[in-house]
Amino acid sequence: MRTTNAQVTAIMSNSMNKSSVQLAKLMQQMASNKRIQLPSDDPIASVRLLRIQREEASLTQYTTNIANVSGNLSIQETNLISTSDTMLNIRDRLLWAANGSNTSEDLAAIANELKSLEKTILSFANVRDEEGRYLFAGTLSDQPAVEFDAVTETYSVIGNNKHREAAVANGVLVTENVTAVEVFGAGMDMLNDLHGLITMLEDPALDATDPAVRAQIDSTIAQLDLTHSNLLGAVTELGGRQNTLELLNESNSQVSLTNKKIEGELSTLDYAKASIDLNNYQLSLQATQKTYIKINGLSLFSLL
User: Fold this and answer.
1) Which CATH superfamily is domain 50-262 in?
2) What is the pTM for the complete model shown?
């Protein structure tokens, strides 16, 4: 079968075009240090890279969530510990009030100190984070957790006992709040008992020797101890959550490191091999170009 000059020219031109495309692609890979420029370069590896990138995006969000939750837990823990200290101060004064040698004036002075401590506990119960959310109000974080009604002279919970949760790892949710109900009880018995006792002790007509006074003090101490026990349980739980967050954050970091290693293996260009290929493509293209020029310049007059 006879091959015409036009056919030879077309074959040589096509070969040069292919070599040029391959050379340009390789140079682009070397410039970006990325083996895969288009999904078609390696469809299987491209799919794996997309999965890794999605997982990395999730891990980044988990890291942010862990930092936010950990910060909230720290604020809650700090306030609960301060509340605990305040309760212990209240208990000391209640024990002092229970001393049978106190006069009515002594009890009134103790009541004045207790009133200040009562307000301090209320402020801790209604603490807010930097975004203005009430931390102990459950999911109703736009309103205070506890409210005092000046008409009825009683405390009540206006938040709820529901928990906010945040995703901190694949399939893992962590509770990010403690509620006032968990610490003080739904009826706010401790604060109500304390407020009632303060009102009693402030009464100028109070008989310090009345057995009802000692009974009310003892009842308030018992309720205080129960509430304090609940508070310490909440502090312990918060500490446990912090430990969990630290472990999950470390685990997420390890997963991220593994992903980056795999991503590098899949996408990073092998420069040693690429350099050899570059040299081969350049030699091949040069040889093809020389051959094309030589063949294209041939004619019957060259043989005469």
Assistant:
1) f41 fragment of flagellin, N-terminal domain (1.20.1330.10)
2) 0.75
